[in-house]
Design goal:
The protein is built from no helices and 17 strands. It is an all-beta fold. The chain has one domain. This is Cell surface protein.
Length: 254
């Protein structure tokens, strides 16, 4: 696993900066260019699509989970999980099955956002689901409904140009198609359920073909803004993200 490094943490309008100062840009549907709206990103000098990571025999084994938090901008009613940040969203999910939501999560708050980066494995467009996003949804009312808090997912290969997955945040009858935070989570290191097998892992799957992208190294999740809010655990609660179809960034392949 790559070293977990935090690049930026923005605490609403009263910023408490850990490793940089953030400037928030507005989201938009489809492809968006963030260049010029975020002048102090800590991506400068890091490997990109044209400069892959060099192989290093001393590095730990590659892993399919996010390695770094590039940006975190919590919204109102956030706070839960910040005492374990950033590790709480790095590494594998801690699913507890359909009837229970994990508490090993980070609440984004109303309209909050987070951006994560993969440094040793990139997501690629392969057969079916390429990326899994894990929240802490669980069944309620005797299993007839799901407690879900939706998030809108975007992906990028360079951290500048973003591709947003269409997310029907108000379509409860249709199961909120295209959104994260809908499906329950089964995968957990303690139970041996694979977090990279969409057939058993749970979580919400995303296919890069949907947005016309062949490779992604960044994932952005934005709280939908119409979830349940209150206390410090409002909105989308991120557990983990995992690569299903991926390619090594240590292989020397651009």
């Amino acid at each position: 696993m790559s070293h977990h490094r935090l690049h930026r943490l923005a605490w609403g309008t009263a910023l408490a900066v850990l490793l940089g100062t953030a400037a928030c840009g507005d989201d938009s549907s489809g492809v968006s260019e963030d260049a010029g709206t975020d002048p102090v990103r800590d991506d400068a000098g890091q490997p990109d699509g044209s400069t892959p990571l060099e192989p290093d025999a001393g590095l730990p084994p590659e892993n399919p989970y996010a390695d770094e938090v590039v940006l975190f901008e919590p919204g109102d009613f956030a706070g839960f999980g910040q005492d374990r940040f950033p590790d709480v969203v790095l590494g594998p999910p801690s699913g507890l099955g359909p009837d229970n939501g994990s508490l090993d999560v980070l609440s984004l708050g109303r309209g909050g956002r987070i951006e994560l980066r993969f440094t040793d494995i990139a997501v690629v467009d392969g057969p079916g689901v390429d990326l899994l996003v894990f929240e802490n949804a669980f069944l309620v009312a005797g299993g007839s409904a799901t407690h879900s808090e939706r998030g809108i997912v975007s992906v990028s290969d360079d951290g500048v140009t973003w591709y947003e997955f269409p997310c029907a945040t108000t379509d409860a009858a249709g199961g909120y198609p295209g959104c994260a935070g809908v499906a329950t989570v089964q995968a957990n290191p303690a139970n041996g359920v694979s977090a990279t097998d969409p057939a058993v892992a749970g979580g919400d799957g995303f296919d890069l073909a949907t947005v016309g992208l062949s490779r992604a190294r960044y994932v952005r999740i934005v709280d939908a803004g119409n979830n349940r809010y209150g206390g410090t655990s409002g909105g989308f609660d991120l557990d983990a993200v995992a690569v299903v179809n991926g390619v090594s960034l240590r292989s020397g392949t651009p």
